[in-house]
Amino acid sequence: MIQWRIDNHVDTILNDQSAISRIELFEKLVPTAFHGHTKAYQRLYIEKPDQMNIDEILKTFIIEEMIQGHIYCLEYNCQQIRDFSRQLGQHIETFVVNPPTVFPVIWNMIKHYFLDPVTKTKIHVLRKGHETTETLLEYIDSEQLPCEYGGNCHSCSTSPDCLPNINQPKLLRYLLKYHSFI
C-alpha cells in the first residue's frame, strides 16, 4: 500500500501543478459535487461514476491521466475529511450508495486486509432502497439529501438532471478560493 502511494505520487499530488491544471477538464467529465451538509454540519460530497461521459474521457485522457485525476479527487476529499475530523474532534462517516455488483468482493478484501478497525466503522456500504434512505436520514436532514436518495432536495447540483454534464469547474473554483498552493 505504501509503495503504491509512492509510485503514484499520492502524497504530493495536491501540490502538483500539472495535475491541478487537468482537474478542471477532468471534473467536467466526471460527475461530482459538494452538496449541503450532514446533521453534524459535515459537507456532503457526491460522486456518480455511472454517469461519466466515457467516450469523451477516453478521447481526452490516457489511462494514467484518468487514474491520476481520480487519485487527486480522492486525496483532496480525504484531506478535507481529515481536516474536518480534527476540527470536530470526531470521525467522519462515509457512505457508498448503490455500488456496482463487483464492489462487495473488492470491499471485503480491502476491509479485511488493508483497513484498521476504526476506519471500517466509519464506512457504510448501502444498496439503494428503503433501508438506505432510513440510514442516510439518520445522518442527513431530508432538506439536505437529494430526492434520488430519499430526501426532499429536488433542485440541487446533484439532481439527476443537473449532474451528468457539469459545465462549471466547481472543485477547481473551490480549490482556488480556499487553498494557497494553487
UniProtKB/TrEMBL annotation:
Pfam families: CRAL_TRIO (PF00650)
Residues spanning the signal sequence: none
Taxonomic superkingdom: Eukaryota
InterPro entries: CRAL-TRIO_dom (IPR001251), CRAL-TRIO_dom_sf (IPR036865), PI/PC_transfer (IPR051026)
Sequence ranges assigned to domain CRAL-TRIO in this UniProt record: 93-157
UniProt-recorded name of the protein: CRAL-TRIO domain-containing protein
Organism: Adineta steineri
Source species taxonomy: Eukaryota, Metazoa, Spiralia, Gnathifera, Rotifera
